[in-house]
Amino acid sequence: MNFAKKLFLGSVVAMSSFGLIACGGDSSSSSGTEDQDQPENIVVPTQKDANITVSDDISSTEAGNFVRFKGRFGLDITVDSSETRDQIQFTKITYSVGKGNDINNMPLVNVIPLSNPITFPSGYDINLNTESSAFVRIDMNDPGFNNECGTYSLIVTVNASDDPVNAPEKFSRTEVIPFERNPNMFCRELLSSSSAEPVKQEVAMTSCVIEGLSTNIAPGINIATCQPADAATGDIVFAKAGTRDEPDMSVSGNNGIVFVELGNHIGDVNPEDFADNYDADSWPEDVNGRSAYVSDFKLRTIEKATLSALIENGSTIYIAKNPAIFNAETGAGMYPFAITYYKEGNNGDFNFSVKIYKVQ
Question: Domains plus CATH for the chain?
Fold first, then answer.
């Protein structure tokens, strides 16, 4: 069960720090002016040493005005017979952005990937998607895109070594991760002031994290106070579920509370309506750099009295809904929540924490 930076390569020094080299034009066949206008191409390294592994889920995903990247780099000492194989550590990670996904013809784009710093050398896995590791993302409003849209690629190079001081780039692996800059979202022609639609007034939500919850002692949440409660007085009540070998949790409601699953990722008719696929690793305020809005949370239509498999689907955001006072515009009666921490206890019980939103 799984719960579950802008690197401007505008100089030779910066490019060498990436391990990526820009290909210049042939001066015998091009004028200086043409060379300046011609974008530099990235030479994508092809080295993929077996000592560095990568997970099968390496990919990109839209998250509001950002694109996030999934993938975990690990170390495999079993492929090396040297006496120092158990000393191998990660020594470096570098990023750049190219236009398109053809590694043989990929113009460099001066877009800065954002990421968390990592202290090297390190023996820990590098996860592109978690805040405790690399947490790589790209702002789709970065001026380096020059108002262009289409297919781009993030190029990630990871180095490792069993001698980090004297040979820090001994082993290397490069992965190319395509992503799309949506023209309907980022390359629309500006509307004239006479035809522009009024700006929607967004309704902000606040959140709190309720700690000290447990399925056997304090299984409930009091929404008004953001405090633990017992099963009888809690608005939202959790219970142990699953099997002996696969314990899990369920949730039900008191006081008319029902549950609706988040519908941000089901924009089959109009994808722009559901462009933001948030979860417990991608909160709206973190993705967008602002308060969470009521409009961030799109609700599905099916209401359920009980939700199950909360641990199995641990990163999922759900909506607790009070139909008696619910208002989709004001956010009344709407309480998005997700499990942020859990620890299995005795007899299938769980200790856990929950983050929940409500209108201010």
Answer: 12-186 (2.60.40), 204-359 (no CATH)
176/174 Cα distance (integer angstroms): 7
| CA neighbor of 123 nearest in space, from 93, 81, 91 | 91
Rounded to 5 degrees, φ, ψ at 67 are -115, 135
Q: Please state, in angstroms and rounded to a whole number, the distance separating the CA atoms of residues 153 and 103.
A: 9
The confidence band for 198, taking pLDDT boundaries of 50, 70 and 90, is low
Tokens of 8: 């401007």
Task: For residue 102, give every residue at least 6 positions away whose Cβ sits within 8 Å of its Cβ, in sequence order, or none.
Answer: none
Contacts of 306 (CB under 8 A, 6+ apart): 250, 251, 252, 259
Residue 322 confidence (pLDDT) above 50: yes
172 close to 49: Cβ distance less than 8 angstroms: yes
Edge-to-edge strand order for the sheet containing 52-54? 52-54, 72-75, 126-127
CA distance 129 to 135: 5
Q: Distance (Å, rounded) from C-alpha 283 to C-alpha 300?
A: 18
Burial readout 99-136 (b: 16 or more C-beta within 10 A, e: otherwise): beeebeebebbbbbbebeeeeebbeeebbbbeeebbbb
Strand duo 350-359 + 334-344: pairing: antiparallel
Phi first, then psi, for residue 29 (nearest 5°) are -120, -5
Strand partners, 53: 74
What lies within 8 Å, CB to CB, of 255 at 6+ separation is: 235, 322
pLDDT tens for 219-252 read 999 999 999 999 999 999 999 998 988 999 999 9
Contact status, residue 314 vs residue 281, Cβ threshold 8 Å: no
Q: Is 241 helix (H, G, I), strand (E, B) or coil?
A: strand
Quote the tokens at residue 105: 């013809």
Tokens representing 107 are 């113009």
Fill in the amino acid letter for 170. K
Is the pTM higher than 0.70? The answer reads no
